[in-house]
Fold each of these.
Amino acid sequence: MIDYVKGTLETIDTQYVVVDHHGLGYQIFCPNPYIYQHEVHKDIQIFTHHYVREDQIRLFGFPTRKDRALFEKLLNVSGIGPKGALAICASGQPEHVVAAIEQEDEALLTRFPGVGKKTARQIILDLKGKLTDFAGEGVLSAEPTLFAPYEEPKTDALEEAFEALRALGYVEKELKKVRPKLEEETLEIDGYIKKALQLLLKR
């Protein structure tokens, strides 16, 4: 298993980043690649999960081991694949997902792309009471934390954010509903993504 990749961040895409390690470029798929947007051409460390199947070999990356551990637990749930697990992890800190599971909040879980009622129930059945390592103070009432606003041309940043949300599985009908609220903000790409996810999960 590749525990982490440490090197120079070369590229950010809507679904992945590329990290150069001694001349070898690692393509690493992330829940929200834009959390690294200020680290381009700088040295970073990403904790990875090496996903191997007959038809797919990929590296998935996370800023902390805790984020990675939640992704791996979600992968063990029947009906959840890598794309679905990434979409859930992109919603915010692991504690917020754990809160939904512990509270048996099926309605919130079904707001994630690809998660229906059956899968939401399966997530709760498989993981409730098994995520104590993620529980922090105030976990059951915590709200997702947004990064501080950063001045950037709104149109480009907003459209990049929407591209990232589409990559996670959100459809145009859902994105159209939250666009007016986002257009009122002046945020960086990551800020738009987090704000959009917060709005999508509240609907």
Amino acid sequence: MSKIVSIHSYRGGTGKSNSTANIAVAVARKGNRVGIIDTDIQSPGIHILFGLDEEQMERTLNDFLWGRCALADAAYDVTSVLKDQASARSRIYLIPSSVKLNDISRVLRERFDVQLLLQGFKELINSLNLDYLFIDTHPGLNQETLISLTTSDIVLFILRPDQQDFQGTAVSVDVARRLKVPKLLLVVNKALTEYNFDDLRQQIEQTYEVPVASIIPESNDMLRLASTGIFCLNYPNHAISQAIEKVSKHIIG
């Protein structure tokens, strides 16, 4: 049965989109058909990690929301990023949001039909025969994010070991519980290697009463890659990649 996985953070700068891309790739490598939708329409960017540029994106999520195409028509097969690190069944499809200033301004000005987006999720899963659909949400809590959380089988919260993140995540977790999301997971990102990860995990799990799927260490290697590719494909044996692998196992169950 297909699952919808929303990746969310209360604040920007947590590495949410990078985490989404890497986790989705880790799940796809295990022989799954995976879709990724960039619903961070105000500040899209996950397409860069998969090597898509503006000239290649003839259709985007925006075109679907404005009735110009079906959502599947805005899906780009980016399975080639896996190269030889996948099974025969593995597939990754990416639905980017437009990076054009006029399109972003229109969304901010006119908003869009959130119910249409939800219907699009279902149609996309059926059309592409997806096992998992990952939703890269906009940081914070707005109408679109709340609706995405409502339809999710799993919500994965990305947070840094930072007091502002801790407080904001508490709000997001409370909202997800009220929406009766079936499964909640936490991922701590950008943790300094000098931290005691076991103590940090225990502290966070006691605070939120939500499992910590993984703690991802801070690394200069991530900064050097500079969003020019998928980290776990470029550094398969790295501590970050091992942490991402743990998250994928939690999602697949």
